[in-house]
Amino acid sequence: MSRDAELTTMRLLVLIGDLGSVGKAARRLGMAQSNASRALARYERVTGLHLVDRSASGSRLSPHGELVATWAEEALRAVDDFTHAVASLRAEVGGHLAVGASQTIAEYLAPRWLARFRIEHPEVEVTLKVANSEDTLHALATGVIDIGFVESPADVTGVRVNMLLSDELALVVAPGHPWARRSRPVDAAELAATALVVREPGSGTRGTLDALLDDLGRADPALEVSSNSAVLGSVVAGVAPAVLSRLVVDAALRTGQVVDVPTTGVDLRRPLRVVWPDAPLVPPASDFLAVARAESAGG
């Protein structure tokens, strides 16, 4: 088990003790529950200890688990203090800034931010790490990036979350699809019952759609792919409808490659968020956030 994976599992144990649920703990860390369960099982094998008791009513730490979680909390506090101290020291000398962004933000918003930041702060070397929202949150939690920009809800422990701007999703189909010619909007129940082209679990777009429709009895996906362009290309090819950010579909709508289908009873607006470790944001990350806010506001 790598050191990063071990630290993540330690955070899981602490949260299971606090929340009484593997699923809730996983969501706080921006992980899929299946990944969290595998990480816990692997850690139990490595340590040779039974750490978590699972039941239909939830999960709780075993006596050994409670002891390990207590030690883990102390160790994690020291790791976080060290990480923040090093980040502050690095900020004093310019150096390097690691930015993480989910795909939609990285492809359609971040390029403008990076161009302006390079002009205003040429002394700072910037790396942009593109991943889905879940992986971006994990990269932040493990210290791989200094600041992140995500589309999914970010109820994650040890992370500060601010809204950056609003985005809107759109239901789109190929021009030959029956929905392209319908006069009435698609409602939530019909959308949930329809096989769609979707992004992979962990994607912010997928997470928003799941939160809207999972209680309605979802149809299995027509196709699951791991990029916005692959989703859009599949729609253009006539595979099935899809729900994507208007940032992604705007050009295809203008050229007539896809058709915007009206909906009713489904709120397709969502916030795009900025996240950073639970400590005051320091340069150069704070400088980058200022640029992102100014560009997002049209400044």
TrEMBL record:
In terms of PANTHER family, this protein maps to: HTH-TYPE TRANSCRIPTIONAL REGULATOR, HTH-TYPE TRANSCRIPTIONAL REGULATOR CYSL
User: Which SUPFAM superfamilies does the protein's record reference?
Assistant: Periplasmic binding protein-like II, Winged helix' DNA-binding domain
Pfam families documented for this protein: HTH_1 (PF00126), LysR_substrate (PF03466)
Q: Which domain of life is it from?
A: Bacteria
In Swiss-Prot or TrEMBL terms, this protein is called: LysR family transcriptional regulator
Family classification: Belongs to the LysR transcriptional regulatory family.
- Tagged with keyword Transcription regulation: yes
Q: Which Gene3D superfamilies match?
A: Periplasmic binding protein-like II (3.40.190.10), Winged helix-like DNA-binding domain superfamily/Winged helix DNA-binding domain (1.10.10.10)
Q: The HTH lysR-type domain covers which part of the protein?
A: 10-62
The entry lists its GO molecular-function terms as: DNA-binding transcription factor activity; transcription cis-regulatory region binding
Which keywords does UniProt give here?
DNA-binding, Transcription, Transcription regulation
